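We were asked to recover a plausible sequence for a given structure. The inputs and outputs are reproduced exactly as logged, with field labels preserved.

PROBLEM: sequence recovery
POSITIONS: 203
GIVEN STRUCTURE:
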């Protein structure tokens, strides 16, 4: 099948299934934010990656919901321009999945998932105490691509503080066996990194 979107556009739902099923596995950003009243929010996003190293910038993309309404993460970033981005890991996958539920804005996903909060240097937003890696970030920009259901927003945040457990980061290398990051596929599917291989880059 070949489709020229200009002449035969696909619906947002069909495009979502095609893109999420093809562009994978995707790392998962588990993003903590809070509103101006101090109410915390925690949500996973699999449209996520590194945008820059110097300065250190992360990028993730929350989609508008089926009613074209922004997620609490976007609403909160408009009020408090800070967040903590955690790496989704196998050990905390059940809690991560729990925080993907749609809750009223004032309800706290940390509490829902039974996750303890810890202070994160450089930002007012708490981190997940049990998470092996967390990045305290300040908002750089939010780029909105549309106002229809499933339209995306590209969120760029600059890392100002890093939490990395001693068993995960020795100052030179990340221990994959300890971190156990998981990747997102389509539908309800995730993937582990237990089957890896290495290739030497050409000179």
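RECOVERED SEQUENCE:
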């Amino acid at each position: 099948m070949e489709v020229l979107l200009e002449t035969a556009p696909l619906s947002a739902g069909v495009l979502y299934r095609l893109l999420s099923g093809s562009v994978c596995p995707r790392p998962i950003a588990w993003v903590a934010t809070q509103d101006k009243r101090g109410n915390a929010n925690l949500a996973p996003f699999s449209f996520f990656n590194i945008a820059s190293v110097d300065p250190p910038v992360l990028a993730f993309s929350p989609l508008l919901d089926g009613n074209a309404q922004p997620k609490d993460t976007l609403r909160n970033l408009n009020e408090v321009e800070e967040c903590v981005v955690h790496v989704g890991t196998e050990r905390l996958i059940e809690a991560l999945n729990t925080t993907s539920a749609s809750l009223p804005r004032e309800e706290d996903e940390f509490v829902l998932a039974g996750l303890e909060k810890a202070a994160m240097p450089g930002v007012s937003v708490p981190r997940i105490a049990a998470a092996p890696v967390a990045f305290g970030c300040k908002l750089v920009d939010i780029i909105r691509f549309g106002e229809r259901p499933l339209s995306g927003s590209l969120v760029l945040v600059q890392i100002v503080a890093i939490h990395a457990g001693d068993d995960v980061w020795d100052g030179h290398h990340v221990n994959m066996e300890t971190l156990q990051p998981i990747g997102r596929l389509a539908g309800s599917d995730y993937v582990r990194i237990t089957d890896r291989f290495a290739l030497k880059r050409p000179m």
